[in-house]
Structure formats: C-alpha cells, structure tokens
Amino acid sequence: GLYHIVNVEANDDAALKEFDRLSKINADILRHMIVKIDA
C-alpha cells in the first residue's frame, strides 16, 4: 500500500474540518486519520 504523513499547522479548526470533508469525498483516498498534537 501507499501511505502519506502530512503535518499541518492551523490556527483554527475550519481548515482541518475542510480537509476532513474533502478527504471523505475524494474516491482516491480510502482512509484518513486526523490526530491533534498538543504543543
């Protein structure tokens, strides 16, 4: 399989929610996981 790790810094949750929404729509993305890391 092919895996990608993407690190994103965002000031608000709106960007992550949009990424989550688009990932669910995209047929090429079978699964995704968003993990919040506290600084």
Automatic annotation (TrEMBL):
<dbReference type="GO" id="GO:0006412">
    <property type="term" value="P:translation"/>
</dbReference>
<dbReference type="InterPro" id="IPR014717">
    <property type="entry name" value="Transl_elong_EF1B/ribsomal_bS6"/>
</dbReference>
<dbReference type="InterPro" id="IPR035980">
    <property type="entry name" value="Ribosomal_bS6_sf"/>
</dbReference>
<dbReference type="GO" id="GO:0005840">
    <property type="term" value="C:ribosome"/>
</dbReference>
<dbReference type="GO" id="GO:0003735">
    <property type="term" value="F:structural constituent of ribosome"/>
</dbReference>
<comment type="similarity">
    <text>Belongs to the bacterial ribosomal protein bS6 family.</text>
</comment>
<dbReference type="GO" id="GO:0019843">
    <property type="term" value="F:rRNA binding"/>
</dbReference>
<dbReference type="InterPro" id="IPR000529">
    <property type="entry name" value="Ribosomal_bS6"/>
</dbReference>
<keyword id="KW-0689">Ribosomal protein</keyword>
<keyword id="KW-0687">Ribonucleoprotein</keyword>
<protein>
    <recommendedName>
        <fullName>Small ribosomal subunit protein bS6</fullName>
    </recommendedName>
</protein>
<dbReference type="Pfam" id="PF01250">
    <property type="entry name" value="Ribosomal_S6"/>
</dbReference>
